[in-house]
Design brief:
Layout (H helix, E strand, L loop, with lengths): L1 H38 L2 H27 L5 E3 L3 H10 L2 E7 L4 H16 L4 E6 L4 H6 L7 E6 L2 E7 L12 H10 L17 H4 L8 H6 L10
Subunit structure: Forms ternary complexes with the chaperonin TCP1 complex, spanning the cylindrical chaperonin cavity and contacting at least 2 subunits.
Subcellular location: Cytoplasm, Cytoskeleton, Microtubule organizing center, Centrosome; Midbody; Nucleus
Protein name: Thioredoxin domain-containing protein 9
């Protein structure tokens, strides 16, 4: 017990020291920034202000452009022709191939509705797999639901069923967000090395960041998912 207590104390000291070091670095950085601002003359400050305003204006214009192209909401498209048109005009597209009779598609819908509002940099669509046989054949979509992740007009990755989402119907929106972040199809602000599975013990496995080869390698593990 004494040894354990000593280990805990050492660990606490190390952590405290690390926190102090981090605080010191942050403080020094802030001091340097303040000093830089203090030494700026009127013209330089005005120039800085203009650059900030330009950046804000640009971000606002980008946002408006995305919204005008149908980003910001989760929409259904009617045909294969619509799919090609939609992916041509947006850099990042997530398209859910669904079927009315598949219950898991409704689960996917719920999460995608939330993410479409949060990540307006990406277009979120759904397309009925039964009405798009040519596209399903071309993209080799065999499991429903499947998300096709399209970047610059090319399908780069797939989320097939719920395999990459913890193999459960109860996965969280954050889990799907993380998976889309791994594919670089959204601007993900979390840590990709730390998947937000709600209960890793429940799945009996240790999840780490999936690299693209392992994700894509899983593409058609299951034959179908019709329940």
């Amino acid at each position: 017990k004494m040894a354990a207590d000593t280990s805990v104390e050492i660990l606490q000291k190390v952590l405290e020291n690390e926190i102090l070091q981090t605080a010191k670095v942050v403080e020094e950085h802030l001091d340097a920034e303040i000093q830089k601002l203090d030494q700026m003359d009127e013209d330089e400050l005005e120039c800085l202000k203009q650059r900030r305003l330009e950046a804000l204006k640009k971000a606002q214009q980008q946002k408006q452009e995305w919204l005008s192209k149908g980003h910001g909401e989760y929409r259904e498209i009617r045909s294969e022709r619509d799919f090609f048109q939609e992916v041509k005009e947006s850099k990042n597209v997530v398209c859910h191939f669904y079927r009315d009779t598949t219950f898991r598609c409704q689960i996917m819908d719920k999460h995608l509705t939330v993410l479409a509002k949060k990540h307006i940099e990406t277009k979120f669509l759904k397309l009925n797999a039964e009405k798009s046989p040519f596209l399903c054949e071309r993209l080799r979509i065999k499991v429903i639901p499947t998300l096709a992740l399209v970047k610059d007009g090319k399908t780069q990755d797939y989320v097939v069923g719920f395999t990459d989402l913890g193999n459960t119907d109860d996965f969280t929106t954050e889990t799907l967000e993380w998976r889309l972040g791994c594919a670089d199809i959204i601007n993900y602000s979390g840590n990709l090395m730390d998947p937000p599975f709600q209960s890793q013990k429940k799945f009996g496995t240790s999840f780490t960041k999936l690299d693209k080869t392992s994700i894509r390698g899983k593409k058609y593990d299951s034959d179908s998912d019709d329940d």
